[in-house]
Amino acid sequence: MSNYVPRKVLLMNRASRRILFVFAAMMLARHAAIHAADSDRVLSPVDSVAASQRVEANRVAEISLVSERIYQNPFMEVTLDAIVTQPDGKQLHVPAFWAGGKRWCFRYASPRPGPVTWRTVCSDAANTRLHGVEGTMEVVSYSGDNPLYRHGPIRVAKNRTYFEQTDGSPFLWLGDTWWKCLCKRMTWEGFQKLTADRKAKGFSVIQIVCGPYPDEGEFDVRWENEGGKPYETRDFSVLNPAYFKYADRRIQHLVDAGMVPAIVGGWHSYKEAIKDFDGTGWPNHNIEYMHLIGEAGFKRHWRNLIARYGAYPVVWIIGGEAGGPQWTELARYVRDTDPYRHPATMHPPGGRTGRQAVTDATVLNFDMLQTPHGDGSAGGAVSRLRAACSITPGMPVLNGECGYEGHMQTAFGDAQRYMFWGCMLNGAAGHTYGAAGVWHAGIAGDPGTFPVWDWTTWAEGMNFPGSTHLGLGKKQLEKYPWWRFEPHPEWAAAGSFAAGIPGEVRFIYQPKRDIYDWNSPQVNGLEPNVPYHAFYFNPCNGKRHEIGAVATAGTYKAPALPSPQDWVLVLERAKP
User: CB 32: neighbour CB atoms within 10 A?
Assistant: First the structure.
């Protein structure tokens, strides 16, 4: 699409120019998917929009403006915002982003149908093609079946124990860890394949880094995607729009697949390594990115992320393994800059929760944990989750990084099931899984980490069984009002986990025990005059093994297990 504007248009009076931009905005109102013509070329958003005067609710409209001036460093020299008046009359201050060359864009989405008007405010008021431009669009009801568009972005529910969508629909967070999957090791074709796999298994959130990666050196070549590195200078003062064009395609692809991108603004540190005699390396000491980039640089980066992705149904993770006063201030900046007020948290260093990592917990909306890795990680993950849920005032809590499946050949399916069910039945608002190979976008010959933690490739890690098992668990919970579940450890014997709704439904997870151990769970405190129907749920394959009616009040000893593995015993109130 050409940016040429005839001279006679440039000579129009201000009112006429506004009319022209209103028409352009209406023509560009509906934002279609950013897509690739092939693996090496990405069409820019302005080339892929449909000619329509309307945009559906919760879909992203992109408005593109062309500057009349050329700036030496537009990213640093110009600030552009749009004042958007929504269908309910409320105004949003929506930051715009520099898209390369003379082009600037802002993106907007509304959960409510109705007329929308907007007006731009530019720091260079003399640039009349960026400042004072006005336009309109019409938001209509969404007609498709994507749950993120049908129900809206997620937010914290009023009781501050779980997430819900804009229309009040409960949202069960089952996340996957794709920290480095915006890099070029993960090809576009591979990204689509991994997305389809996780969608089919029932994952609802993807945690992904858009900024400095973990376990990589300063401006490591492995930061690059198809467009290069995100920035050309150490202090993030020279932006590379080509990087973000390719990142845009992947973020929107996740949303179009019905999964929420949980975007991490960058990692706190990288491990500077020393080489051993054979060319391998081990961490020598950590170097903090906050000190290298600076608080101002991270704020510039976050404004760019908010401008590009804030209109999408996203979640913000301010920093990875981050904390302290500067990261707290950065979280406050994100909260104050994001017009949509998306939920935000901090991925903390090990041993702390997100709110314990910041100096002011009010800058976060939900709490996140990082718990140990390895075969012995499962029990610690559950105990730390339980402790985090007891902190007041309450907020949704979830484990955002537990033992990766297959990491150094540890924590396979049974450990993943233990952590999922143990956390979910002890008050978690959701759970995040991770697999060796996937989180670091490992490929044959390049694991994407230094030192090398795993040679597992993402394609191998994608098929580890734990991802299937956790997806089955999520689907089983969603058959019930899981958001009303409360932990009830008194319902089960020590070593098992129990939660549910008294008089309605009980879930008891009994972990795997010794080989040949068919010993079944015991259920305590059954209410009198409440008939239950019981069955065993197999957390490995999702099959249901019927038990039948349970009319006993007080203590109930379930029949022998169908096999000596971990099981979920479900008691649901029998229908009259």
Answer: 16
